[in-house]
Design goal:
With 177 residues, the chain is α/β, with parallel strands linked by helices. The protein has one domain: 3-Layer(aba) Sandwich (Rossmann fold), CATH 3.40.50. It has 3 helices and 9 strands; from the N terminus they run βαβαβββαββββ. The strands form 2 sheets. Strands 4-3-2-5-6-7 form a 6-stranded mixed beta sheet, with helices on both faces. A 3-stranded antiparallel beta sheet has the order 1-9-8. Strand 2, helix 2 and strand 3 form a beta-alpha-beta unit. The longest helix is centred in the first third of the chain and has 18 residues. 29% of the residues are buried. Magnesium ion binds next to strand 5.
Length: 177
């Protein structure tokens, strides 16, 4: 099968929207320090672009959880591949994700992080596919784009670990060769 990627959200649209989110987050955290937790690997591109636009003092840490492998549908099994380096106790934590699909990954992660007693815990995602949600209680505080139920790649998102480096969000389709 041949993989064909078509542009869904172009670079300019992404940058403009992330400008707005960066300003909003900077206002909401005025007078505070934000501790950004990037969910690897998909969240890296978005987190970096967002962090550049946040004007309050900022620290960052990285975590890797997995529920997918190379499959396109959720396994329902979430495991920590890499835990945080620093404690989040008493910190104003902002979790930055690439996409919320079934919500299983975030539901698990938010429950785990809440137990570590942050001062506050908010969630920021590049993409949200609300039609696919199977888990209740994943409150999204900041979402750059809500999209339809399409499998997307680029800007951190992968298909079989490829395409993360695309500077745009694209829809992937599969054609007979
Ligand atoms: P959830 O647990 O079903 O919400 O899955 C979240 C994770 O699945 C994301 O962090 C992605 O790694 C992956 N994922 C879900 N939808 C897509 C997609 O359209 N493209 C690439 N990865 C996706
Ligand atoms: Mg992810």
């Amino acid at each position: 099968m041949k993989e064909v990627v078509s542009v869904m959200i172009d670079e300019k649209t992404l940058a403009d929207r992330i400008d707005v989110l960066g300003r909003q987050i900077s206002e909401d955290y005025a007078g505070k320090q934000v501790h950004v937790i990037c969910v690897l690997k998909g969240g890296v591109a978005f987190m970096w672009e967002l962090a550049k636009r946040i004007t309050v003092p900022l620290t960052m840490d990285f975590m890797s959880v997995s529920s997918y492998g190379n499959e396109k549908s959720s396994s329902g099994i979430v495991r920590i591949v890499k835990d945080l380096d620093q404690s989040i106790e008493g910190k104003d934590v902002l979790v930055v994700e690439d996409i919320i699909d079934s919500g299983r990954t975030l539901s698990y992660l938010l429950e785990l992080l809440t137990k570590r007693k942050p001062a506050s815990l908010k969630l920021c995602t590049l993409l949200d596919k609300p039609d696919r949600r199977v888990v209740e209680g994943v409150d999204v505080d900041y979402c750059a784009f809500t999209i339809e139920d399409k499998f997307v790649v680029g800007y951190g998102l992968d298909y079989a670990q490829r395409y993360r480096n695309l500077p745009y969000v694209g829809e992937i389709s599969f054609e007979e060769e």
